[in-house]
# Entry
Amino acid sequence: MRRSFKFLLRPTRHQQIALTAMLGDHRALYNAALEERREAWRRSGVSIRYGDQSAQLKEIRNADPGGQGRWSFTSQQQTLRRLDKAFQAFFRRVKNGERPGYPRFKGRGWFDTVTLVEGDGARWDSQPHHPTATYVRVQGAGHVRVHRHRPIAGRVKQVEIKREGPRWYVICSCDDVPAAALPATGREVGVDVGVAHFATLSEPIDAVTDAGGHIPNPRYRRTAEERLTRTQQAYTRTRRGSAGRRKAARRIESVHRKIARQRTDHAHKTALALVRSADVIVIEDLKVANMVKAPAPKPDPSHAGAFLPNGASAKAGLNKSILDAGWGVFLAILTHKAESAGRDVIAVNPRNTSRTCPAPECGHVSAENRKTQADFVCVACGHTANADVVGASNIKRAGLVLRDARAA
# Structure
């Protein structure tokens, strides 16, 4: 398996300056390559590819030995590949009829990662005989100390240097990471994510849920709403271009970073507890990006230029709650942890899972079955239960049917 390990860096002041310069030069290379592609197409209708731009690197490095020439050649190739992937995604969206989103120039705050190849530009554990610390050697910055809080597994193939606000991180991408299979539990569960509860399981698990089978929703963004509002109001009172405005912007970034860290930490802990407690985990195959789209406007046929109510205000509040829950992050982490632990994760179509009666002799499907957010009452047989538990039970049953069909 291929896995990534993220660690905090402890660079010195001079190393921070060098790492910042490395980001700046790679950002300049990215923007210059983007400008070359744009101008070549605008002036001559010529498409420039990655191979064309990569062939120019040697000449660029020789012409600027104190700038581009001091960094790793392969890291600059990775930056050009990053631009090429952005163009490939752009053309794919055009072909599929989606909103294209032409690649943009990267500002100072929008280019925070440089990818290096292990052994060329970076070397992990560059001082293996040091008794107490771990270092990563970065070309142009030297041996940077790593706060290694857990062991690393597999062979390090790539090293990413990433800046997040005032902090620096190293992300090691490793191949041949062995799976650490957990002992069998004999339990199979369905997971229904939601807003009122972060998730609901088809059956309660003491280590994961409360007595009703629910995992509480921490709502980290809502908890930080007051502080975020204060910092945003302070930002609006500052003068454009002033030092106070930059300081206020950093405060806003700090609040958002803390929310993101809390959300990721909660997802990791919840996913780990779930993986330890069940052999088969059935989840919904959710398209979160589609779920948080704003509703389409409804033109008023009787008044030109006017629009009918479309529930945009209520949908905006729901979208904020969905994004605050972080379903996508949780499901991705759960899938990765399950693979490492030898567990089976099955994704099923979520359609009608909360509208289908779970009673074996019934199975009636109707929107009227779900009376409220929490109550399920089948209009055909009268079966009553918690609506989220019903959804989780139907998800589990659909997953097990899909598993048996695949085995057959």
User: Anything to note?
Assistant: The first strand starts at residue 3 and ends at 10. The mean pLDDT is 92.
